[in-house]
Design goal:
Blueprint (H helix, E strand, L loop, with lengths): L1 H40 L7 E6 L16 H18 L3 E4 L17 H16 L2 E8 L11 E4 L4 H22 L8 E4 L3 H4 L5 E8 L3 H8 L1 H20 L2
Helix pairs in contact: 2-7, 4-7
């Protein structure tokens, strides 16, 4: 009698076990099926890696010292805001620097401090990103009237040009049309042979977010509101580009 009870119990347990396994498989299939539409909505951001490169840093202050400003600080503030906006859209963000440092110690080439710094930035971009954005401030010593956001791409990179055009459209809409409410200034794109554009293996752009030598834009570069607006404009341009890639 005892042996029979044990046999029946084992037989019932096997049935329960098989039923449980089948139920788990079905639930897993249902979960994956429901997750797919969500992934398709955010297909441009899932697993996309954007490298943000705040230009200059540390011993290299960049331009602006004559005006009581340092480019390196403006670049970093805008870049940190851009990082937040991109992360809010579920992009993975890598910074070449997130504090006031230069990067020459991260390079192993035998060259000047300046070239070692650029080499380190290039390596971070190539090894970590799908695209990159390098943030800078411009200056024109011979003309205080020169102004406007400039977006540069490497001449032979079709994808970099597309990225530049996407960011340019976003800057024109958000900054000039809505924020500054002017049609007298427009962002523009142009091919250029800058080191970080030439030596990188991924699409990317170098953005001059304003002319520090222009009085009106100098005031904008001091403004936290403008820094937030330009960072949002760049974020929108990056996101729109990656939607179609």
């Amino acid at each position: 009698m005892i042996k029979t009870n044990i046999f029946i119990a084992i037989k019932i347990n096997k049935k329960i076990l098989l039923t449980g396994i089948l139920l788990m498989i079905m639930l897993s299939i249902l979960f994956i099926w429901k997750e797919e539409p969500l992934k398709s909505v955010f297909h441009h951001s899932f697993y996309r890696k954007v490298v943000i490169d705040p230009g200059h840093g540390g011993i290299d202050g960049g331009t602006g010292e004559d005006f009581g400003l340092l480019e390196k600080n403006i670049n970093l503030k805008v870049s940190l805001k851009l990082k937040k906006y991109l992360m809010d859209k579920k992009f993975k963000v890598i910074m070449t620097r997130d504090k006031d440092i230069s990067l020459e110690k991260k390079s192993h080439i035998k060259a000047s401090r300046y070239l070692k710094d650029l080499d380190a930035r290039k390596n971070i971009m190539n090894n970590n990103g799908d695209i990159f954005v390098s943030i800078h401030v411009d200056a024109h010593p011979d003309s205080i009237k020169t102004r406007g956001v400039k977006i540069y791409y490497y001449p032979t990179s079709t994808e970099s040009k597309k990225l530049a055009q996407s960011i340019c459209t976003s800057v024109n809409n958000r900054i000039y049309k809505r924020f500054l409410k002017t049609n007298r200034v427009q962002a523009s794109i142009a091919p250029e042979d800058f080191y970080v554009l030439r030596e990188t293996q991924i699409p990317g752009v170098l953005i001059e977010i304003g002319f520090i030598t222009n009085p009106q834009e100098r005031q904008l570069l001091r403004s936290e509101k403008y820094k937030a607006q330009i960072a949002q404009a760049i974020c929108e341009g990056v996101s729109n580009y990656l939607k179609n890639r």
